[in-house]
Amino acid sequence: MSTDDTTTETDESTSKCGASETTQSSSSSTSSSKCGASTSSESSKSKCDASSSATKKKTEEKVGSTVDDFEGDPGSLTAVGLGPGEPEGMTQRAKAELLDAEHIVGYTTYTELLPDEIIEQADDMYNTPMCGEVSRTEEAIDRALAGNDVAIIGSGDPNVYALAGLALEIVESKGATASMLDFEVVPGVPAAQSCGARLGAPLVNDSVSVSLSDHLTPMPEIESRLHAVAGESFTISIYNPWSRKRRENFQKACEILLTHRDEDTPVGIVHGASRDDEAVEITTLGELEAYGETDLVDMTTTIVVGNEETYVWDGRMVTPRGYESKYDY
Ligand SMILES: C[S@@+](CC[C@H](N)C(=O)[O-])C[C@H]1O[C@@H](n2cnc3c(N)ncnc32)[C@H](O)[C@@H]1O
């Protein structure tokens, strides 16, 4: 069960989680399971790159092992949010949790963001490329059920379009419980807040987030959510705004926003907050669609659409909280 093209077959048979079996493994960080109880998926190559999901069929990713397949005392499972990317953006608690973890499981991009001291102290790192989130999460759970203290990591916060919920759903489907794994969520700074900080103060009043990914939510549902929130006075943080296969979703989102909001509405675009390729721009809603074809807008971008009171001052987006109606300043 491997999704990594660089994975090579070896005769490695030592399990890092108690159960033994012959597995595939690459050299250091590996995308092959070190855990005996395996998923029944033939491949964790997810259908997440499928462009249209309105008529979604189930993938072959399935939960394989159950709690009865493991002997001995379980370890622990913690979902840890890394924040936007730079080590300094990680909370002290997240860092402490990762330094304590025996196994760290995550999408390759995120394991690569970890500071060396965390990577060096872990007994094992398990990473897979994008997608395969069900099998990756199951791998983390199996390792914990086999007795290891496991951290499953993701960018931002584990509760924001992330794996905390999936982890609990799979734990339940295995017949295990959150309590037996001491399941915990360690929060991280979500992208909306990291990006809001780069833009000034656009999120100071009521705000909502909308993801344009139609991997799990059909586009008509996303459209109706966008209509609902754009028609109210929220600032809107748009996650997963654009990919080659989601070009039309982005165009459609811009159209919907423009049916509810003025074309002069300020919009902030933040690409790769706190990462090496960070880029920030403030534009208007009328101009937004054209940015879809630039490097600024992709799957590591968050877009913040102002409400009807948001303005731009000195290069910063400002959304008044309402103080001006009560106080003189
Ligand atoms: C699957 S969601 C994960 C969100 C994450 N759990 C959080 O709390 O931010 C991935 C999306 O988060 C946003 N994102 C994550 N990291 C970002 C960053 N450093 N800068 C801008 N947007 C980011 C992008 O919209 C990306 O498509």
TrEMBL record:
Give, as in the UniProt entry, the pathway in which the protein acts.
Cofactor biosynthesis; adenosylcobalamin biosynthesis
Q: Which GO terms describe its molecular function?
A: precorrin-3B C17-methyltransferase activity
Q: Where is the composition biased (Low complexity)?
A: 19-54
Q: Which keywords describe this protein according to UniProt?
A: Cobalamin biosynthesis, Methyltransferase, S-adenosyl-L-methionine, Transferase
Record-annotated Tetrapyrrole methylase domain positions: 77-288
Gene Ontology terms: biological process: cobalamin biosynthetic process; methylation
Q: Supply the Gene3D superfamilies for this chain.
A: Cobalt-precorrin-4 Transmethylase, Domain 1, Methyltransferase, Cobalt-precorrin-4 Transmethylase, Domain 2
Provide ranges: composition bias, Acidic residues. Answer: 1-12
Q: What Pfam families does UniProt report for this protein, alphabetically?
A: TP_methylase
Q: Which InterPro entries match?
A: 4pyrrol_Mease, 4pyrrol_Methylase_sf, 4pyrrole_Mease_sub1, 4pyrrole_Mease_sub2, Cbl_synth_CobJ/CibH_dom, Precorrin_MeTrfase
Q: What is its EC number?
A: 2.1.1.131
Q: Which CDD domains match?
A: Precorrin_3B_C17_MT
Q: Is the keyword Cell membrane in the record?
A: no
State the residue spans of region: Disordered: 1-89
Recorded protein name is Precorrin-3B C(17)-methyltransferase
Gene for this protein?
cobJ
